[in-house]
Amino acid sequence: RAFLKKGATFGVGATALSGLGSRDAEAQNFWDMSADFVSIGAGTAGLAASVSALDHGASVIMVDENVDIGGHGMCSGGQVHLGGGTSNQRKFGVEDSADQVFLDWIRHDHASSRYSDRDLVRAFADENAATYEFLIENGVRFQDHLTGPTAASTVPRQQRSVQWPVASERVTDYPTRVGSGLVRALETSARSKGARVLLRHKMTSIVRESPSTGRVLGITATHEGRTVNIAATKGLLIATGGSSSNVNLRRTFDPRLTEEYQVAGEPWSRQSGDGEIAAMAIGAALWATANQTAEAGIAISKTRHIGCKWGYNSLIWGEEYLSGSALGRRVFEHARASGLSVVNWQNLIFVNQAGRRFWNEVDARYDFFAAAMAYNGESAKLNGGGPIWAIFDQDAVAREEWDPRPPNVDRDGYFFSADTIAELASKIANPYQSRPMAPAVLQETVERYNTFVDSGEDSDFQKPMPRYKIQKPPFYAAWSTPILHDSLTGLRTNVQAQVMDTHGQVILGLYCAGESQGGFAQHGLGRCLVFGRIAGRHAALNGGNA
Questions:
Q1: What is the per-residue pLDDT across 306-320, written as a single tens digit (0 to 9) for each?
Q2: Residues facing residue 392 across a β-bridge
Q3: CA distance 500 to 537
Q4: End-to-end distance of the chain based on CA atoms, in angstroms?
Q5: Cα angle at 311 between 306 and 315, to 5 degrees?
Q6: Which pTM was predicted?
């Protein structure tokens, strides 16, 4: 493999290499740059892996398609789910062990743990405490508390990072979105130890010695219209953040998830599925796919910020929080609106694209999501549920203390108002609204709901004690379609985070961590950090070999 050297030219595609001998590739100077360890993605998993690889003597290149590092971790809540006897647990008197972490996260009586690959959970459990101390050593600061137990855990294990202090290096100042403190600290450490970060580089394919055999050699990426070939001499990590943003791939797991469902973290970062698709193209397998549809965890969430396209995270892009960050303002230009944050679900009703109520608005269980995605008999397509609209009146606006004007709402297809219910229905037009809403249907829906307020009983969907009529103009319709969140399945790996093929064999030189990794459906940043750290260490010490 002496040909794995920095080349002088751009433009040779990855598929060309599979048809060339190594000496031919050397002659053509195929590689434009090279490092021992290359991470596709500079989010939480990629950063942890890169620092770990550097700590064990490897050179590192991180490639990311975004304009900055951090991925979803940058705008996350900074919640790190790590236990097993960390220094933080000892500080708060919490008794824990690696064995207890393992037993909790293979529980048969909890939907978040029963489908897990127990070998992966064992590796995760054994590395929990060390990974927490690794974060501290690399400059991550945590708030002075410990929360839980959450999900399958039986003791408190969750801690939140401290917001990064430099406002211009954050994408939001929203008080609960503090993931910048985690990713910026790891970035600072990685850069200080010699990592090279290539932003606005989009991976297009993984290069393997042959399409279905041999070790992985590197990647082909594009940057500003040019092709860049990057060799990974010891290991290549897929850390592209999952597949929730990829309509075709997410429908592999749940056919209902058609194009109308937006994704948490957008428009800042995408869960593109690029890593999974590129890996499957060279023989990689998916793993524990039942986790995506087990109706546990946060695969999908009810939006609290209505009237804007990017409902889950839209409030964090609000202009009032972005005074210190030019980057944040750029994100807000794409988001366009911060949404109206709902305090009391009694102030509105939900209707589907046909204008009919479909479920109890107070509910946030998977039963609600199933109803939202149900076929309503009046859609132009059979799969997907179509847009969900919140319908309310001026009295609701006053009770919630909303300002239903831009930039709080997006009037370009995601928020409408009118003096009558019938007129409101006729105004609703949206790229995902496959047929116009019939004014008579929405009028009938609202009138029927108002009778439930009079009687104090919702005889259709059992909303507890319906409280407020929808009767005072103007009337409003706000986009309230559920938001896709975690990718809870992905590529099959072994306990060293090495990717495995459809025959159960390791693909030498290829690793995966974060939400692109399958087998362990824990919500949050803990699993990303643990398996990223494992991948970087193993590649540096073993050269990508089994």
A1: 999 988 766 677 665
A2: 476
A3: 18
A4: 18
A5: 85
A6: 0.93
